[in-house]
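Protein modeling request. Please complete all fields; requests missing the sequence field cannot be processed.
Requester role: graduate student
Desired output: 3D structure, token encoding
Chains: 1
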Amino acid sequence: MIRPLTLTLVLVALCVAVCPWVPARAELGTGPDWAAGAVEGRLLEGATGEGIAGEQVRLSWVPPTEDSGYPYPWVPEIGARQTQALTQLTDADGRFRFDGLASGRYSLRSHMPLERPTGPVTVSPMTPQHDIELVAVLGRCLSGAVLGPGGGRAEGSSVALVGVEGADGENVRWREGPLVREVRSDGSFLLPGLPPGPLWVQAYHEDHGFSPSIRIGADDAEPSLDLILRQETDRLVSLDSDVFGGIGVQVGRGPTGPRIDAVSPGLPAERAGIRTGDVVVEIDAHPTRFMSFTEFLMRCRGPVGRALTLRLDRSGQILERELVRVDIR
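Delivered output (329 residues):
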């Protein structure tokens, strides 16, 4: 017969073995793992030492080991099943601050190319506060503003480097995809770290449309321009939609335009004789070589029953096909 005291010890041991994380979670914010931590600092332009305003800084929690997952929340407001990162925009002087951090290791990132990466930042009861400078190397930049169809600042838009023009006129950036930045809350933008040579840039917004693709010459080191969106709501369908009017193709990028990678049986593209490997050089008379891939996909979509025209390059032979969108699910 097992004595009551022995039975109690056995049950306690079993609970500890089965539920090792319960005490750690219960003590979050009150026990030794908690620190009133903060990570603050400035985002600086390396060439001038001035603060960079309106840029996003991201703080991410670094798990103790690769396979540990996220066993506990790392800030008071975020649960274990939610995102493990915080973002903040720098103020007018380039400053940022993240408060209320639990003890742990964090990584600090910026969309700006940095002079040197920051190593993990460790918050603990002994060192709860950290002040860090992020020094950006902007290189060749493009600045300006994105304007909506009515002339106002288009908050929520994106600006993309959609192409780098090679000596033969091809888009030599097609393998890398676009370099994309969201505009700031006042509609302005800064696109840093641009490569040399002639560039093509474009702004787009899912609700307001697209600006024309604009060419920047090789000798234009730090251009500044306004990108004006053209509203074409009858042609725009959200890329997140599961149901839309389309033509039944899968498309990839190529140096001279979007390339047809697959054609769905029985849908308009197949019926029009479009083949895998065809390159789309125009869509509804809009050249595609330096068009953002987002714009091309959204121009392929549209109201069911509405026609669109594709101009194709098939091994040097130029073809034109008109297709009528059907319901795609």
